[in-house]
Every structure is written in C-alpha cells, then in structure tokens.
Specification:
binds adenosine-5'-triphosphate, homodimer, binds magnesium ion, alpha/beta
C-alpha cells in the first residue's frame, strides 16, 4: 500500500486538483484508491460533490478516536473518500497530548480493514498539526509547484521541513515534485520548470499538468476530470501522471 | 487611517499580489501606506525583495512585545512595510494568554507613531490566530475571489466567519470583494463574476483584476507591478482598484 501526502505551504498550487484527479486516474489504471481530505476547508470533499452541514469524516477519527473504517465513503468501484468533516479545524487547537497528536492519522491508517493500493492525503496550505499528521502517516510526498516565483519559494521551504522531520525521526519519505498549472507559452513557466529540473533533477515527475479550464470547472459539478471531460488535455495529463507514479518515473 | 485586512481561506487567490500592488497604487495616488506581512510564509516580504535568514518584523511585536515602530522598513517615500519575520508561525502555537492573543496586533497598531492613510494586512490562507489578529486590528476587509468554484466557496465561508466575530464582539467591519485573476474569455470566470454580483451586490468592487503574466513575474524581481511594468494592464487594473477604494466604489 503506497501512502502519499499531497503537500505544499503555498496556496492554490493544485493540491486538491491533483488529489482527486491523480486518484481517479490510478483507479482507472486498475488500482484501489482511498483519498483522505485533511483540509478543514473540505475542498476535496466538496469538489467530489459531497456537501452539507453535519458532514463527519477524518475529524471524528482524529478528534474522537472514531473507527476509520466507519467514515469511508465509497464513490466508485475502487475509489473511496474519507471526508474532512466539519470539526477538522479543531485539531490545530488540541493542546493536550504532546507528541502523540502528530501521529493520530498514522495510528488510524494502521486500522484500515480494506486493502488499498494507494492512499492519498490532501493537505491544507499550512504547516501545523494537520500537515504533520499527513507526513507522519505516509511514506511519500508529492509537492505540486505551479509555475511562478512564490510557488518555487514554497517548494524549498516544504522540502526543508520534511528533511528536518526525517532527520529528527530517522525516517525517509520518498519525495516527488509535479509542475502544475503549466502554461507552455509563458516565459515564467519555462523558467520555473528549468530551475526545478536543475535543482531537483531526481524528484521531478516527467508529466507537467497543463493549465486547462476543464480542470477548474469539474469541481463545480462535483466531478473529477474523467467524469467531466474524459477526452480533455487535463484528463490526458493526469493519466500520464498516474503512469509516472506507477513507474516511479522521473523527468 | 483606514486599516484593511486582505483575507481569504482559499489559497492562491491573490491576497499577496493585491496587498503589494494596491498599496503601491494608493501611494502613487498621494497616500501614505503601511503594509504588514501576517503570513509566516513571508510571501509579501519576499515579493518586495526582502530576503535572508534572521529577518525580524511583526513576529517580534506579537511574540516578544517589541515596539512596532522599530520594525517598519521604509521602501519608498510613502510606502512602508513591516516584514513577517522568521518566527511568526509560532503565534499559532501560543497557548498562554486566552482571548488577549487575538488582540495583539490591534494593541500594537495603536502605538504607531507615523500617521498613515492606509494600513494593509496581508493574511495567510487559514483561519487561526493570525487571521483573527488581522480582523480584530482592522476596520475593513477585502476578500479576493479568483474566478473558480472553490474560491467562491471560500468567500461564503470567510464572510460567515467575519459575521460571527462581528456578532460576538458587537462591531462592524466594512467588507469588500475583488474579483482577481479574471479571464474574460473563460465561461467559468463569467459565471463566478455573475454569481458574486448577484449574491453580494453591495460588496463587489467595480474593478476586476485581470490575469496577466506581468503580475506573476514582478515578485521574482522583488518589484511591484508599478516598478516592473508600469504601462501594463496589471498596473492599470490596480490603479483603478485604488480609485474604487478611495471612492468606496462598488460595482
Ligand atoms: N491545471 C489546472 N488548470 C486550470 N485550473 C487549475 C489547474 N489546477 C488547479 N486549477 C484551479 O486552480 C485553483 C487552485 O487549485 P487547487 O484548489 O487544487 O489548489 P490547492 O493547492 O489545493 O489550494 P489550497 O492551498 O487552497 O488547498 C482551483 O480553482 C483549481 O480548480
Ligand atoms: N492577476 C493575476 N495575474 C497573473 N498572476 C497572478 C494574478 N494574481 C496573482 N497571480 C499569481 O498567482 C499566484 C498566487 O497569488 P498570490 O500569492 O498573490 O495569492 P495568495 O492568495 O496570497 O496565496 P496564499 O494563499 O499562498 O497566500 C502568485 O504566483 C501570483 O503571482
Ligand atoms: Mg486544496
Ligand atoms: Mg499570500
């Protein structure tokens, strides 16, 4: 079971877009995939069409020791989701419990009954306890980098944090970088791509996800790109990215 | 002195881009402006060309009761900045102090010696103590909404939070919405614009900021759009937005 966090401290770089579409692409490639929404904003949950007050999910697991298996929502054959839940934001303010608070998701994942090939954890754009739980619970991280200066800054920062955690806890996470919202004709996008390839050659995944309006539209229908427009370039890019992940494919 | 927070829980909607460029536009219109970087990611600080470890700023004011006047960096005649500082992220984890922790920025602003026409507070994409301090310290908020589904969701959420605070503390903040990263030809952008105008007619500012690559490029040079490309559409849009703010101009 490959457990992967989608992490970046920069906002709006495509963490949620990648979580939902890469997961569905892997399911279409025959894999059994679980997505977990670790963002109190519930963007992943809403993007997949689940709304409404009183929604519960990973918040009950992390705050009230709920059984993780009770909160799995089956979306399709081979694609499941654990929603964020309305109370997830409270985890950041839990003061009792010391270091254990950072390992609650890891403990919960060990109790999963179903055999998944992939577990993806969509993270919020911040570095508190939620992101910490995701890093501790997974063995791989994907950092989406959108093609601009501040996103590049965020990349160095998050890799630094992960490295610090790895040294402190003597553990190694596999790291991947994916270029997102890529606009071929923008010089800035080409400059960022070239810099990322130069500084992190062994981490960059071969496929860049191009900026295409269908990827921005599909969440408003509660659909992934494959449900919304399966012949689009966005669907093609995420299918190719899934192959990269399956092959451990670097650029 | 108009004190304005730039707030949204959605990442990457243009809070920082708006903070730096609207501030500079107002200074060019003859106003004396102070920007405060309340994001531990220091994006505003870096976008204006200030880098380097050991940078101190509003973190020292909020965590160590530093004198706010000591941390003002004068960028131009009429345009000042208080950097975030490396330790700003620690504020979210301060547990001693109860409700007072949410009012530290407000207390600090009262000690400002210089007479500013505008104070802008750039906020992180989250709703913890940093955002709380910004809301308490300012009398107006601007919520940038980029032209997509998740950004619209974030808008309702943040307006709900601000309303809740207003009821609890019996105070009224003036609220403004600005459409950002607007792409005329995208149907989704037109749909979001039309929805925002319909649901919040008295809050939307007349000028939408168009998506233009120069706005994404200028931070990599440590420059605002006016320093980088003063004849660009991005500069025009932020100049027009400054006029809207000066006139209390709604759409
Ligand atoms: N390749 C793309 N083409 C077009 N639009 C995109 C693409 N990737 C993401 N978007 C849009 O950009 C916005 C930000 O993307 P997304 O919400 O996935 O980023 P995020 O990193 O999860 O943001 P946050 O930090 O708020 O969690 C969304 O409206 C999304 O639909
Ligand atoms: N109108 C625009 N045209 C082109 N690019 C833009 C525009 N507005 C913002 N951008 C770019 O989009 C990215 C996100 O913008 P910005 O960092 O200002 O958003 P933010 O809301 O402050 O993000 P965060 O939530 O991470 O603080 C940046 O790289 C910025 O340069
Ligand atoms: Mg997200
Ligand atoms: Mg910002």
């Amino acid at each position: 079971m490959r457990k992967i966090s989608i992490i970046s401290q920069k906002g709006g770089v495509g963490k949620t877009t990648t979580s939902m579409n890469l997961s569905h692409a892997l399911m279409l490639a025959g894999k059994k995939v679980l997505m977990i929404d670790m963002d109190p904003q519930s963007n992943l949950t809403a993007s997949l069409g689940l709304h409404g007050p009183g929604l519960t999910g990973i918040d009950s697991v992390l705050l009230d020791q709920g059984d993780i298996n009770q909160y799995i929502v089956n979306l399709k054959n081979g694609l499941d989701l654990i929603p964020a839940g309305d109370k997830l934001g409270e985890l950041e303010f839990v003061t009792k419990g010391g270091a254990e608070r950072g390992f609650r998701l890891e403990a919960a994942l060990r109790k999963l009954k179903s055999k998944y090939d992939f577990v993806f954890v969509d993270c919020p754009p911040s570095s508190g306890l939620l992101g910490m739980n995701a890093i501790m619970a997974t063995c791989e991280i994907i950092v989406p980098v959108s093609s601009d200066f501040l996103s590049m800054q965020g990349l160095s920062r998050v890799l630094g944090i992960v490295q610090y955690i790895e040294e402190k806890l003597k553990r190694k996470n596999k790291k991947w970088i994916v270029l997102t919202r890529f606009q071929q004709r923008r010089r800035l996008a080409q400059e960022v791509k070239e810099k990322v390839y130069r500084y992190f050659p062994r981490l960059v995944l071969a496929t860049s996800i191009r900026e295409t309006v269908a990827l921005a539209e599909s969440p408003s229908y509660g659909k992934t790109i494959f449900e919304y427009r399966s012949a689009s370039r966005g669907a093609q890019d995420y299918s190719d990215l899934a192959k990269d992940i399956l092959n451990g494919e670097r650029a």
